[in-house]
Amino acid sequence: MSSPLFTRGGFALPGTTSQFKTGTWRVQQPIHRHRNAPCHNVCPAGEDPQAYIAEFDAGHIRAAWETLVSINPLPAITGRVCPHPCESGCNRGDYDAPVAIHSIERFLGDQAIAEGWPYPVGKPAADAQAVAVVGAGPAGLSCAYHLLRQGHQVTLYTALGEAGGTLRVIPGYRLPDSVIDAEVERLLQTGIDFRPGQRLGRDIHLDELRGEYAAVFLAVGTQDPRDWSVGGVTPRDLHVGLNVLKEWMAVGSVPQAESVAVVGGGNTAVDLSRILKRAGIPDVHIITHNGLPGPDSLPGDVMRAVPREIEQAVEEGVQIHAHRGIRRLLLRGEQVVGVEMVHMKKLPDASGQLKRTAFEGTETLLHVDQVIPAIGQTIDPAGLEAILNGSAYLKVDEWRRVEGHAGLFAGGDGCSRGGGTVTSAVGDGREAAEAIAATLRGEGLPGKTVSEAIAFDALNPHYFEPLPRNEQHILPVEERIAEVETEQTLDPAQAKAEARRCLSCGNCMSCDNCWTLCPDSAVLRLQDKGATEAPYRFDYDYCKGCGLCAYECPCGFITMKEEL
Amino acid sequence: MTDTDDKALLKQLRVEQPRFQGIVSGHRACLGCGEALATRLVVEACGPDIMIANATGCLEIFTTPWPESAWRVPWLHSLFENTGAIAAGMEAALKAQGKSTKVLAFAGDGGTFDIGFQALSGMLERGHDVLYVCFDNEAYMNTGIQRSGSTPHAAMTTTSPPGKVRMGKRHLKKDIISIVAAHHIPYAATASVAYPSDIRQKVRRAMAIEGPTFLVIHSPCPLGWGHDGSLSIEVARLAVTSGLMPLIELERGELTGAMPIRTPHPVSDYLKLQKRFAHLFADDPKAREELVHLQALADYNIEKFALHSLGDDPQDTDGADTVTRGGMRYA
Ligand SMILES: Cc1cc2nc3c(=O)[nH]c(=O)nc-3n(C[C@H](O)[C@H](O)[C@H](O)COP(=O)(O)OP(=O)(O)OC[C@H]3O[C@@H](n4cnc5c(N)ncnc54)[C@H](O)[C@@H]3O)c2cc1C
Ligand code: SF4
Ligand code: SF4
Ligand code: SF4
């Protein structure tokens, strides 16, 4: 340790009262106790934003990114498309406005791409146990990477010629291919044995994989559009939403029409409607059973698309008919000329279950010349028939073990616990990798109890100042075209300013408050002030246990513990 | 877990703290004592080249239980009534020897507002180069919580109990800062233990001046005021943000600084945390009247010193204690 620093020079030896240990008066003891931040507890990928924002705020950008990708290897991607439940949970929301966590995440991801930072993972030992991962979407990529971090050899099979899975269907105006390429290619360079063009049930077979590898993780997602009809009737020239999107991405064309009704309330429906607008179709409608996101909507009855995307779609002129069902297709011959809609809502029935109810007398007509269903996808059963047994998804337990098939794990959209988002797929992949590694080591499965998040009223907000949230720049509607990202990454100054807004819930921010305010000088400071670990020690010889430090700690990092 | 019982590390840390430690642990102040904290903050800001004359009072008693001392600077115990005179003598003696060591006088509110007042007034009038610091905990605490000239109106002490006739102390808190400033001294200021950086700034300002300077620091006493020791800062902060304890600076008697209040808090927020004001919350018309009276006194201060801040100001009651990662606030 370096020599002492004093504010004005000078040095005094301990006084004679030092021999009197006032610590014996104490009946309660302050302790440093890390508490989970709410942003951490609600992140489906399992990120701890408090931890990486702290490193970023302390000026260690690369360390921040490494902490971030020790959990989520796709931050440039999730920073763009995640509906960010972390921000709804953020304690700063109770103070002024939530920290723009997704914008910081995106900034760090983009920074790593710009700088070419390699992922913090070593090469596995030559004799490490090998695991196969099927499907190179976010769930498969995350699992492969985390298996590698756990020291395993990993082979990643996927049906298509490139990695990314359904990410490749998300339009470029919010997730450019260049970003997917930059992040995924670096991820594949970590030592994952990537085998594209290998389709389960055609080129590879589950039995063989299970024989060849110590464990198999299935991350095939959902690739088959759900069947759609109105009372058994479908238009002759039926286009299916997902396919229209794929075609637009591949060749840049959409079905010709003056007015289109897109059916569905998820990301596919919203993206499709915005693409149709960008392709020049003047009149685009969304018809959805669910309500618009907002404070009044019932949790089980809200459009599943990312709220800010819905907002932007409306700005762009997409007309959303929420809480509407389609009663009838108006056909002239087999050609659609309109739809009959009816008001619908989910209402609790006698047992409290939400049930969709249509209201007689609320029927209206909408004249359109195309109806495109975008009501979601289900699993493609090819090669999995024996395991699916007719089910629409792979049934897994909380460790993502496929029930009744030892050594077989599954995650992402194709499994029963799938959250339908990129981040939940990433979280599935990581949790499965941990369970696989523990199983292969012959250890107990990882614990699943999460300690409660620290609440806003356990902080001392007096020490913070209101600061405006740094928003990403959004293109004005008239400049929004298909090839250009609608929202831009924060610039470095904005990103730093945003990191500064974090309240450091449940973890020390080295503010010196306790050190300054203890009337008994019983908080001692280490001189090498770490960025994240609290550089303070309690001197229990003298601490009287007044609790002042705990009360004044802005971050709730000090807890008083009964001693008697 | 970052807590430790590594004795060798603690021992080393105790001497290596990156701040001047003129007063050390082991003193016998109560849990959460505001005065003990205020003293440490003042001594830290002064540095080692000082000598202290300390009046009888809590501070003197809890720092020097015979035969121990918590002081690591030259320190002298004066009587209750003569700290100003002793400090003046020390300063004259040092001057005669050609030394520049700064003399400080420390006293409580009893030793300043009442008993030691004439010695203080004489010291100021004769222009001695002394920084006089009054740690104001608003009563005679070490002798058993008797009212002083500084006890606020309507507060309960053992000699101003609330009853049928009076709601606690009948008289007002003495306006010591105006009286001191009327001696036409170069610098006099009020401060609060809730605002450590403000204390430091004011101490440094006073230390840089040759001539008599005066600082009164509002320092909660958990025992005498009847609040939990963990709330000392909270209570002190509310005294400031309610307007009852304006933080002002007076140079040659003229107002030169006042900490603006961002959002004035009702005085009842401050009062209800303390048992000495508990009687004001009884269902009684006299109690209600005194609550309104205390609010009026706070409003008077806010108006007199124009304390209500016009916008968000980094130097106001909300801005002045803002923290950032790495403790920059206290640099
Ligand atoms: C238009 C659209 C927009 C979306 N927008 C968002 C959004 O904004 N935010 C968000 O969080 N989520 C969004 N989603 C959902 C998100 O893309 C998915 O939840 C996520 O990609 C699921 O990841 P996964 O790894 O489970 O599956 P997928 O990404 O679907 O990946 C599955 C992989 O498995 C491969 N595969 C499938 N079958 C086989 C087989 N038999 N053999 C070998 N390989 C196979 C596929 O080729 C693919 O690579 C959107 C989805 C769509 C369709
Ligand atoms: S303030 Fe920071 S630590 Fe707290 S919930 Fe928000 S992002 Fe997380
Ligand atoms: S402020 Fe000091 S004395 Fe009080 S509990 Fe904290 S460490 Fe102990
Ligand atoms: S008061 Fe500040 S320095 Fe002390 S533990 Fe809390 S955050 Fe860390």
The main pleated sheet of chain B reads as:
8 strands, mixed
Main-sheet strand order of chain B equals 2-1-3-4-6-5-7-8
What's the number of structural domains of chain A? 4
Named CATH architecture of the largest domain in chain A: 3-Layer(bba) Sandwich
The tally of domains of chain B stands at 1
Amount of helix of chain A: 25-40%
What does this 3D model show about the protein?
- The complex is a heterodimer of chains A (564) and B (331).
- By secondary structure, chain A is an alpha/beta fold.
- Chain A has four domains: 6-34 and 508-562, Alpha-Beta Plaits (2-Layer Sandwich), CATH 3.30.70; 38-119 and 461-498, Fumarate Reductase Iron-sulfur Protein, Chain B, domain 2 (Orthogonal Bundle), CATH 1.10.1060; 130-223 and 379-440, FAD/NAD(P)-binding domain (3-Layer(bba) Sandwich), CATH 3.50.50.60; 238-372, FAD/NAD(P)-binding domain.
- Chain A is built from 17 helices and 19 strands.
- In chain A, the strands form six sheets. In chain A, strands 4-3-2-5-16 form a five-stranded parallel β-sheet, with helices on both faces. A four-stranded parallel β-sheet of chain A has the order 9-8-7-14, covered by helices on one side. In chain A, strands 10, 11, 12 and 13 form a four-stranded antiparallel β-sheet that branches.
- The longest helix of chain A has 19 residues, at 422-440.
- Chain B has 331 residues and is α/β, with parallel strands linked by helices.
- Chain B is built from twelve helices and eight strands.
- Chain B has an eight-stranded mixed β-sheet with strand order 2-1-3-4-6-5-7-8, sandwiched between helices.
- In chain B, a hairpin with a 2-residue loop joins β7 and β8 (254-258).
- Chain B is globular, with a radius of gyration of 20 Å.
- At the A-B interface, α16, β18 and α17 of A face α1, α2 and α10 of B.
- Bound molecules: flavin-adenine dinucleotide (FAD) and iron/sulfur cluster (3 copies).
